[in-house]
Amino acid sequence: MAEHRALVSLKVHSDNGLELLRQTLRNTFEPGNVLALSSIYKIFGEQHRPLHVHDLRSLTRYQGLCAVAQLRVMTPAQKLLIHLMSAEERQAKDSSHHRVSLNLLTYDDQVSMNPQLTLPHPELHTQPYYMIPAAEIWADYRHPILNKSFHELAQELARQPWGEFFAQGKSLLDF
Description:
Elements: E1 4-13, H1 17-28, E2 34-37, E3 40-49, E4 58-73, H2 77-94, E5 99-107, E6 112-113, E7 118-119, H3 128-137, H4 150-157, E8 163-167
Antiparallel strand pairs: 1-4, 1-5, 2-4, 3-4, 3-8, 6-7
């Protein structure tokens, strides 16, 4: 069976984000399969959140944490995607008030555009919370459609306000 390299984004929106990231990483991947882990970033954004049943929605600022992992995988991309979706579902059942998002960003240099699997991830080059951590751990990877390195793509997004450094990613690998 052939070995493949994949990038997976991990995002959590929780008061206990660091522990939730660690738990998600531990429950989703084998320790030896995580080849590299980016720094952890605190991300900011706008989200509509209900305040009370009688209130209309109010715009509130939320924060979460994100990181990107480079993985060694032996399974096909579609099977890895199913594994990530199952891990998200398990996490949602365990804690209904925390949100975990796992996204397959790249799988080798595979290009796929179908309803079940789109690679590279369609927002990879447009979202700093994907691209900047990805470039940190795989700067010379070339986007198979845009033919630009992750380093070049990250530089294009670096000026956007999106978040800030929170912690070293290796702190999550204590499992």
